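Throughout our pipeline, every protein is held as a single compact record rather than as scattered files. Nothing more is needed to write down the fold, since each code stands for a local backbone conformation. For reference, a complete record is included directly beneath this paragraph.
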Amino acid sequence: MLSAFVRAFKTPDLRKKILFTLGILAIFRLGSHIPAPGIDYGLVQRCQDMATSTNAALGMVNLFSGGALLQLSIFALGVMPYITAAIIVQLLTVVIPRFEALKKEGQAGQTKMTQYTRYLTIGLAVLQSSTLITFARNPSTLFGGSCSTVMPDESVGVIVLMVLTMTAGTGLIMWLGEQITERGVGNGMSLLIFTAIAAGFPSSLAVIQQKSWSTLVLVLALGVVIMTLVVFVEQCQRRIPVQYAKRMIGRRQYGGTSTYIPLKMNMANVIPIIFASSILMLPTMIGQFNTPSDGSPAPEWVTWVNRYLGMGIQGQDTHWLYMLIYTVMIIFFAFFYTSVTFNPDDVSDNMKKYGGFIPGIRAGRPTAEYLAYVLNRITTPGAIYLAILSLIPLIAFNVLGTSQDFPFGGASIIIIVGVGLQTVKQIESQLQQHDYEGFLR
């Protein structure tokens, strides 16, 4: 991998793309530290120093923003509105016939769906920024402890300005990601997520180091093992062979080639973890809004939610009931999202249309049933793998007392490994193109 980067910097065109990408990533990290208007940065830092616990309901958003959310910066929302919008639009292709038709129209339809995703991202940014400002008006719900205020001026004009600024920040992040995709190296939004998560690694390891150096060494060794296993699983494929029959069209012969359908063990990627975390954070978030700010006792149902469905909040360990529900939901959403993204009937129809068939399997309905059978068999270990990986941060929180965004587990490690592999592959493919050009000259 390192040799690929060294060769890339020796290639002028590729070097410009890499430097451009690094420049955009630097701008993204700079914006994560610029406070939004109406926020006193000194008070925010003081609240973080006094923090007794972090709101677990916002842990996932804070992870994907690289810590910018709890700093209440102009990029506080990070890429989470775009991720949510992209998932919603993808799911709507199953429900709305218009979206399904656009999906089948090729590049023109994809461009239209991208435009819908942008509009929905802005709408979600307005909603999420308003929710975040509501939390910021009562900082104890964000940072815990006795933090009193981070907004000296809570007038309507200031709040509207904060919403507009954070929404504009989300739009700028979207534009930065698209610029990386068009003029840089790799997928822009994926690299922004990669950068945000990687930025939180030092702070997470620093919390572990405060326990003891031996604990840090043990965690790093465990991290190497986990990353190796994640690389192995993410690269696993079940390749189903496909043969195309020979066809004569006019005087030319087409077909007669062999290829395969690559089915990954983890086709759903991190989406099941995001779904499960988002749904389980709702009761805790509702409980936060119903907790009295004057220090009086909370309602009994809020106490029950915090005890059994809270992800390590208020100094408590994560309850086994939360872990059980979390695991079941991840396994369910792994099968659900895989069935949405890969339709065996559509694949079978397309193969039949172009004269393709799986050796030993009849075209049409038998092919669809065979694909569904294979898909279910490989999704089962993939879903269990996701569930185990997502429990690692929760177990680490209980055992080590670390922050919820434990670096070696859950969505963070899958994204770090997946984006890293994808970017290296793209760099190697572009290097290979340059080698071919040199050979042709």
In short: Residues 365-400 form the longest helix (36 residues). The chain has a mean pLDDT of 80. Strands lie at 237-244, 247-249, 252-254, 258-264, 356-357.
